[in-house]
Write a structure and sequence with these properties.
Helix content: 55-70%
Largest sheet: 8 strands, antiparallel
Distance between the termini: 122 Å
CATH topology of one domain: Outer membrane efflux proteins (OEP)
Number of helices: 14
Shape: elongated
CATH class of one domain: Mainly Alpha
CATH superfamily of one domain: Outer membrane efflux proteins (OEP)
Order of helices and strands: HEHHHEEEEEEHHHEHHEHEHHHEEH
Number of strands: 12
Strand content: 5-15%
Radius of gyration: 42 Å
Length: 617
């Protein structure tokens, strides 16, 4: 019997433990699994419903993203890059002017699309700081019932009373008024007004209560104002001014990014122009070499040439083809870089052809005027000045924190009590029962170590920003000096390259005539042809580098946007000198700055000179 009892106890214990394990799994493990499954389902649904229509500019953030949002659509595979040495079929041309290129860059560049959100975010911070001066209203009420046991004779009105019941209605817990409106003043004070009606009913009432139920109505107005710390408009609006400086800093950072993108895009445009011009000269050399090779092959069949001369012509042709392949590689690199800057797909089956004519005239680079223009126009200096002013405001705020907190307050109110709400209000508004109060509060931390540490930190931060201002000015001066040397040297190199091209052209023309008359060997003529092809490529590349140097010069002196006819809104709406200035809203709700590109008139002389320089010979 004892063994059977033990076996039964063991079975009961096992069943009990099994029940505990099942309960634990059901309560803790299964909800976690269901939660994980639901989380994965919600994540998949949210990813399938991603909508980027709120983004400005182009909606396609990646050329590899599928066009359809359906989950059944397979992931699109990026196209295989085309070979740069394929000449079986010429791809269609995409004529692109400088104005069109810059318009695409400022509207579709990925970096600018992201950076344009910063001023809008900073502008909302101004609204947050200004909202502290908006009036606020609070409404509320509380009903309470208290049923307490009578423990002595004084708590009850007579013998036989065992409990005391009271009902109350008044303001919520922790609030002094049922209805209150308050506003922070620009000078640092606070103005408030409140209204309250307290209702109380006791059962039993007793002979000592004059009103049961009793309704007490009160109305009051109170003002408090700091006398030292936090007093004055200059102190209370510090955070608003700091938010305005931060917003201006975001605008200047966006302007810096726009200027960098415009400068890089224009420089890359001329880089592509130069590489295409170099490729054209290489192709011209290939055509000449292939023509000579065919002529020598025909002469060999007629017995008028020899195999060594045909071999020399073939070797020179292959050399020109190698040079052409290298030039085509440079074109592909420059075009890919330009496509990235303007937000165009890397592969669309077209080749970009720059159509804007380069500048061939000498630019007047006035050093003194450029230094003055850079000091007034470079947004880097404006950004640093904004940071410096922000540090000054922080120093002003920390200095105000050194003063003790002394606050004065005063108030006046009315009150009235009766057995109902109407008579209570009439008694209150009669003005018979008035009260007033006034006082003074002094508060200061012993030792003031926290305030002094904040003030010293603000002082060091201000000194750092002043040192940074000098560094920014020095960096801009060095950048302007390098741009001045670059444009001067580029102009000299372009002139020398033009003279070299003219001399090489004269040499090859004379040697072509001598070779046709049989007065010069084929090897000497091919050598002259190879010498002639290089000056043409160098001269065209020098023209492109000179125009890129002009872009760099305009960027260094801070006039790149004006030079490229790009309109960028000012950080301060009052600074915008436009005919529609009265229609431009001001404040945080102003439209975010979006650069606009206007068409630039073409230079007829430059175009004519360019056709003369780059025309087929």
């Amino acid at each position: 019997m004892e063994a059977k009892r033990r076996i039964a106890d063991a079975r009961i214990s096992s069943a009990f433990l099994f029940g505990l394990v099942c309960t634990y799994v059901f309560l803790f493990v299964c909800p976690g699994c269901r939660s994980a499954v639901q989380t994965k389902q919600l994540t998949a649904e949210s990813e399938s419903r991603i909508d980027d229509s709120f983004l400005p500019g182009p909606q396609v953030l990646s050329p590899y993203r599928a066009a359809s949002s359906s989950q059944s659509t397979p992931i699109s595979i990026p196209p295989k890059p085309s070979s740069t040495s394929t000449y079986s079929e010429a791809p269609p041309e995409w004529p692109l002017s400088m104005e069109e290129t810059l318009a695409m860059a400022v509207s579709s560049n990925r970096e600018l699309i992201v950076e344009q959100f910063s001023p809008q975010i900073d502008r909302q911070q101004i609204c947050l700081e200004e909202s502290v001066f908006d009036p606020s209203i609070s409404l509320g009420g509380q009903w309470a019932e208290n049923n307490s046991q009578v423990t002595n004779v004084t708590q009850g009105p007579g013998v036989g009373v065992t409990s005391n019941l009271s009902n109350q209605f008044g303001p919520p817990k922790g609030v002094s008024d049922q209805a209150q409106i308050s506003k922070r003043l620009q000078t640092g004070g606070n103005l408030s007004a409140g209204l309250t009606s307290n209702y109380q009913f006791s059962d039993p009432g007793g002979s000592f209560l004059l009103f049961n139920p009793a309704v007490r109505s009160t109305a009051h107005v109170e003002i408090s104002h700091p006398l030292l710390r936090g007093a004055g408009v200059d102190v209370t609006r510090i955070r608003i001014r700091m938010a305005e400086d931060a917003c201006a800093g975001g605008h200047y950072r966006l302007e810096i990014k726009v200027r960098q993108i415009v400068s890089r895009t224009a420089s890359t445009y001329w880089k592509l122009f130069g590489t295409r011009a170099r490729l054209a000269s290489r192709e011209k050399g290939v055509e000449e070499a292939e023509l000579i090779y065919r002529q020598e092959s025909d002469k060999l069949q007629l017995g008028e040439s020899s195999r060594p001369e045909v071999a020399v012509a073939l070797s020179q042709t292959e050399q020109f083809r190698v040079s052409r392949a290298q030039a085509q590689r440079d074109v592909a690199d420059a075009e890919r870089e330009l496509r990235v800057l303007i937000g165009a797909p890397l592969e669309d089956g077209k080749k970009i052809i720059p159509t804007t004519m380069p500048v061939l005239d000498e630019r007047d680079v006035d050093w003194d005027q450029a230094v003055l223009a850079a000091s007034h126009s470079r947004p880097e200096i404006k950004l640093q000045n904004s940071s410096l002013h922000l540090a000054q405001l922080r120093k002003l705020s920390s200095h105000d924190g050194l003063r003790p907190d002394v606050r004065a307050y005063a108030g006046w109110g009315l009150s009235g009590t009766d057995d109902n709400l109407n008579r209570s209000f009439r008694t209150m508004t009669s003005g018979e029962y008035q009260n007033w109060w006034t006082g003074l509060v002094y508060q200061k931390q012993l030792g003031g170590r926290s305030a002094r540490s904040l003030d010293e930190q603000a002082r060091l931060n201000l000194a750092r920003e002043r040192a940074a201002s000098e560094i920014v000015e020095q960096d801009i001066y060095q950048e302007l000096h390098a741009a001045h040397q670059r444009i001067t040297n580029a102009w000299e190199i372009m002139q020398l390259s033009s003279d070299r091209r003219a001399a090489a052209t004269e040499v090859v023309e004379s040697r072509r005539e001598m070779h046709s008359l049989g007065e010069m060997s084929l090897q000497d003529y091919l050598l002259a042809l190879s010498v002639w092809e290089q000056p043409i490529a160098d001269q065209r590349q020098a023209v492109a580098e000179y125009n890129a140097a002009i872009v760099n010069w305009e960027y260094a002196k801070g006039s790149i946007l004006e030079y490229q006819n790009i309109d960028f809104p000012s950080a301060n709406p009052a600074d915008e000198q436009s005919a529609a200035s009265s229609e431009t809203p001001s404040g945080p709700d102003r439209v975010p700055p979006v650069p606009r590109v206007t068409a630039k008139p073409s230079n007829g002389d430059a175009a004519r000179n360019d056709r003369e320089e780059f025309g087929d010979r």
